[in-house]
Amino acid sequence: MLDLAGASAVVTGGASGLGEATARRLAAGGATVVVADKNEERGAQVAADIKGIFVATDVTDEAQVQAAVDAAAAAAPLRALVACAGTGYAARTVGRDGTPHPLAPFEFIVKLNLIGTFNAVRIAAAAMAKNDPQNDNERGAIVCTASVAAFDGQIGQAAYGASKAAVAGMTLPIARDLSAVGVRVNTIAPGTMDTALFDMAPQAVKDTLGAAVLFPKRMGVPEEFASLAYELLTNSYMNAEVIRLDGGIRFQPK
């Protein structure tokens, strides 16, 4: 069991949604949490609420991610990273008007969701490798965020599905790499989650999305993601897995 009490953790995308819920869960478990996010106002508020640290962070920027990791390591041994920063985009490969998918947003989504995740993983893991080991020579643990779109990508999700499939695909090789330094890596692939993305959506829209879930017939909530993330971080025998957190949903083409 990885003990996070008295340790530090970094949560990218920690100012809202899945990241915020995870930051709060880690703080409740005794960790000092660095909320790494571009949203300075909301990020600072979350950090204040949980007696953590806010560091303005664009996960695609090496120096900013390094600053977040350094802030965590200065507070306590860095033993946990949860990489939640990311976003979506929808466009068909060839639009209804015959135009091709614009390349710039495809590149942006891959850079944020995939390269941003790897950037955080590599820098955090390098800091964890310097820790004194706990039981089983364990020095830390990492949780990445994919999506069920990695496996069931819908019409218009070429960019998003590709970025998240790559996060899922790099989980095993990174776990193999980091076994040498005593760091575990797992990935959660959420289904439809009731985050800020749906704040303005009518309840009828949420009900429709929930109806497609096998059981329970509702959208997931961030606290359920946070609960699984905490288990993956602390359960020392969980490694190199990609776990769907989706109520059994299987996306249809649209």
Automatic annotation (TrEMBL):
Q: What SUPFAM superfamilies does this protein's entry cite?
A: NAD(P)-binding Rossmann-fold domains
Q: Which PROSITE patterns match?
A: ADH_SHORT
Q: Name one GO molecular function term.
A: oxidoreductase activity
Q: Name one Pfam family in it.
A: adh_short
Q: Which UniProt keywords apply?
A: Oxidoreductase
Q: Which PANTHER family match?
A: 17-BETA-HYDROXYSTEROID DEHYDROGENASE 14-RELATED, SHORT-CHAIN DEHYDROGENASE/REDUCTASE
What protein family is recorded?
Answer: Belongs to the short-chain dehydrogenases/reductases (SDR) family.
Q: What name appears for this protein in its UniProt entry? A: SDR family NAD(P)-dependent oxidoreductase
